[in-house]
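Hi F.,

I've been meaning to write this up properly since the lab meeting, where we talked about keeping a consistent format for the predictions we share between groups. The idea is simple: the sequence comes first, exactly as it goes in, then the structure tokens exactly as they come out, then a line or two of notes. No screenshots and no reformatting. I'm using this chain as the first example so we have something concrete to point to.
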Amino acid sequence: MSVKFSIVLPAYNRETLIKETIQSIKNQSYDNYELFIVDNESTDNTYNVALEYESKNTQVHKVENIYPCSYDEAKNYILPRCTGDYITFIADDDIIQNNYLLKLNEYIIESNFPPALQSPIKWFNSESRKVLKTVEYYYNSILELKNQLLYHCCINTPTFVFSKELKDTDIIKGRPEKFEGAADYDLYLRLVDSGVFINTCRDWLGYFYRAHPNQATWTMVKKPNHNEEIKKPWIEKWKSELNIL
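Output, unedited:
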């Protein structure tokens, strides 16, 4: 069986890096996908660079930049247009191996089509191209996942993939107006509270996360930390279930 993927590429001021990102998608050995590149009102030439790749299965859109360090403008705009069985987001400065979608398809089928999943990522140095570390999270039950989420965000957002059934629910919408770029953490807690188990693949499937001074992660570090605010209601709600004193 062949799963159709909707790939969303939110883009902001990445004219020097986004070509490699798009090309890594175009080089996939697996071709059952559609690509949406969504420019978030870039002030450089990113939008025009993206337009060079527009084709039958690649659409380029532009959305208003409202929330700092957030991709939710792109997500909320493009999800109604996605026709894939599963939806995933790829950052505008990252790259994927040419068999990433193929391996993702195999994992989804072997796992009996989970509602959501994640897999490990490899950080690489933008200049030396050397792999710096692998970031991976493992848990075996929804209780373990809840415990880990109350400690830190244990979901690799770049590899977060969710089904079309979740796409059509209100719960998948982020709340960037409250949490800016930390809205993904809030989303995972709300998903798990609703009974959605986010499968964790133990194998690296081919996602490379680029480490460089202007990446969104470093920008978020400089912003107000919303983590404690995000966790607070769930600590209270889950305390008896998780034996929290």
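Notes:
Residues 227-238 form the longest helix (12 residues).
The two ends are 47 Å apart (CA to CA).

If this format works for you, I'll send the rest the same way.

G.
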